[in-house]
Amino acid sequence: MVDVLVIGGGNAALCAALMAREAGASVLLLESAPREWRGGNSQHTRNLRCMHDAPQDVLIDAYPEEEYWQDLLKVTGGITNERLARLVIRESSTCRPWMQKHGVRFQPPLSGALHVARTNAFFMGGGKALVNAYYRSAQSLGIQIRYDSPVDAIELEGDRFVAARTGSERFEARACVLAAGGFESNREWLRQAWGQNERGEWPADNFLIRGTRFNTGVLLKYMIDAGADAIGDPSQSHCVAIDARAPLYDGGICTRIDCVSLGVVLNRDAKRFYDEGEDFWPKRYAIWGRLVAQQPGQIGYSIIDAKAIGRFMPPVFPGVKADTLSELARKLELPESTFVQTITEYNAACRVGTFDHTALDDCHTEYLLPPKTHWARPIDTAPFYGYALKPGITFTYLGLKVNEKAQVHFGGKPSENLFVAGEMMAGNVLGKGYTAGVGMSIGTAFGRIAGAEAAKALSEQLGVHRAEA
């Protein structure tokens, strides 16, 4: 029997394992993926949103707690637990030295991401390097690691953890941290969550899974069925508009289409359906997957012209290119006359002031529905480009309810030795929406808390045993 069992292999799980081991506990980590795919969705990340009151090594200016909170409040529409959200925010201001101690390195943001240089610290080598650094540190500290070990059942005595099972194998521990991700790779659960729309479509059938194929929600479902308190809307998720040519799983950051705010987005009827210039892209990119999911056929098309080239991080696949709008419509197989009319009406509505993609500028449309609030410039300079978009699910928001100690709750009562971190509890903070880097902030904060509290639970158990003796 080990002191602390950690179920999961991504950022939150690794943070929990490292913190518990640093506190003196023996630790076993069970990762469902094979070694080469270890790390869950964390391998696809690239930065951490950080509160800071003054410039730091790779962070400019200041990003105080209240601004961070207001940014989160805006994207979630108030569907968040302020107490837990502020806990994440404050933890984000102190975690980086600890991360660096475990081998994580940071770099200044790349040119395509300078607009988040104040708010986000970027990992040198991206999320894969972060995951590898944590695994190296875990091995050097004597943490046991088992790959290809998906947990399918938890043994409980009331609200106390007893053991976990992976098939016929059984793992006992004095405390446990659940950090096995959401259910984004479980197509049937996604279908159930999204249901059938008024057009008779099952939207989830057209979703691509931007993250890991190993997050099927088996453990999450088991815990909810076992009576753990759940939180969050199962249809809400980190859902990004990604290149429709992306692979079914593990497309990651390179499949994201980042030119949305520089042009217009059309549905398959060649009609606009939302304000492309509503706010800065890091605060709005994760709404576009859901918006596209609500369109016919769950597909959209990002349209730009030559003026946009060089102003956004290019995706892995080149856009469809044409010398005229009519030619582009034909290549994208969109209704040509409607396509040209939509762009022509948009161009006529543009009121171009001082274009500045790093600020909420005064380039906007007038007498157009939906409006474009910022960065509105006519699409009139050849060549023209189009990117077909599909919803890309990164992680789901349905999770287990927690408190400040990351304890799993049963009927409102916190368990003494069962904790949860990462995507399995992110819905406490993210009821809907997203802002860049906050997922890693949640995973790091609650992973560290869960690991420390699991180790603390051991010492409290020992104290009780000594008192009884």
TrEMBL record:
Cofactor(s) listed = FAD
Per UniProt, which keywords does this protein have? FAD, Flavoprotein, Oxidoreductase
Q: In Gene Ontology terms, what is one molecular function of this protein? A: oxidoreductase activity
Q: Which is an annotated Pfam family here? A: FAD_binding_2
Every copy of the FAD-dependent oxidoreductase 2 FAD-binding domain together lies at 3-429
Which PANTHER family does the entry link to? FAD-DEPENDENT OXIDOREDUCTASE 2 FAD BINDING DOMAIN-CONTAINING PROTEIN (PTHR43400:SF7), FUMARATE REDUCTASE (PTHR43400)
Q: What is this protein called?
A: Tricarballylate dehydrogenase
Q: Which organism is it from?
A: Caballeronia terrestris
